[in-house]
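ugh ok fine here u go
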Amino acid sequence: MKIRTVLAAVAVAGAFSVTAIAISGVPSKEPVPSAIAEATLWTPDPLAPPRIAETNSVRPTLAQADVAFEFRPLPLLPVSLADTSLPSIEPPLVTWSREIASGETLDAVLSDAGLDASDRAEIALAIGAEYDLRHLRPGNVITVVSETDGKPRRVELAVEDGVRIEAVFGEQLAARVLDPDPELVTFAGETVIESSIFAALDTADIPARFAVDLAQMLGGTVDFRRDLAGGETMRLLWREARDGNKRIGQPELAFAALDIDGSVYEIVWPNDGSGQATIYVDGEVLRVFAQPVEGARLSSVFGRRTHPVYGNVRMHTGVDFAAARGTPVRATAPGRVSFIGRRGGYGRVVEIAHGSDTLTRYAHLSAVPDGLTQGQRVMAGDLIGRVGATGTATGPNLHYEVLVDGRPTDPLSDDRLAEAAERGADDTAALERLSEARSLLAERLASEFAQTTTERL
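structure:
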């Protein structure tokens, strides 16, 4: 019943909708309003033609050409091709380096670096042309720079004093010597002697080798075993050749001051390479003295010892200074050359007479200056030879003797040579050098103290 009622309602609604649509679709019979009708008849007025203003401008006239134009193809512009070749690329390199061990040869080290026999032979010939390979020492450094396939490009041998010998592979193997360009730096230090000069220097981080220089200079004036009671103050000024943070060669003393038993002993070394020094006591010139080999290491002292070659115990009549072959040897005091030649186990020798009773002997020399002759007068610090290993010697060194009335005496303690040495410089100039050295020492010590204080803060 309910369903029928719903259907009837839907039908009635539909009938009303159809009737409404039909009524709206019948056209209206009402007339159109007059205003709208007039609007539909309106048209715009026609546009007036534009007016061209007359001016005095001149129009270009085209000249009539009597000749017909000829069209030709444009020439091609030259094109410069840029160099498009790729840059050459260096192959990656491998660096190998190590020190030469005791007893090793250059060939053995190069073999350890992986080089073949032919390359090793070429390198040895090239480096050997610039450096005597017999002088190789433990600690010398070999550096090999190679390509990844093992082909060597550069080999470098670093020897003493920052010198390097470089062999470079190219069209042919070439070698050259590279010398360092060091900077000369001045240092100062102060220490108190408790047991020995050597120990005091070592404790203060001052080169301990200076103990030998001081013993040489003051050996004839001060008895270090007897006069040093402990508590003495020592101040030093020295020079070092530096390549960056690396020291080149050995340090050289410039000034030393030592307070002993109420007296002040001072020594000023010049910077002219002569090794000649002036000794002062309480501000007055005592004497001029020169050490035989500047900066050398004292390798053997005066007295009984086991002979390094023969092995038996015998008297060593001088002192030995170990130094590189060719190091300058200088006269320790003024005198006259009494002998130049060879004396058995001494090898090549120069002897200098200082008065009638004192003589100095310089042995194992490798060479003597061409201009040096027997009977010639020499001054303290004059060049008389070069360190070598002639005669009975285990290596390059200077054997230095002092003979008094023909008998050997300890060169580090005898005072006869000091008495024979004359004052080789004017006292006024010597005192000026002392004043300059004192001022520089005070300045450097103040600088060192300020730097140490800053580092602690």
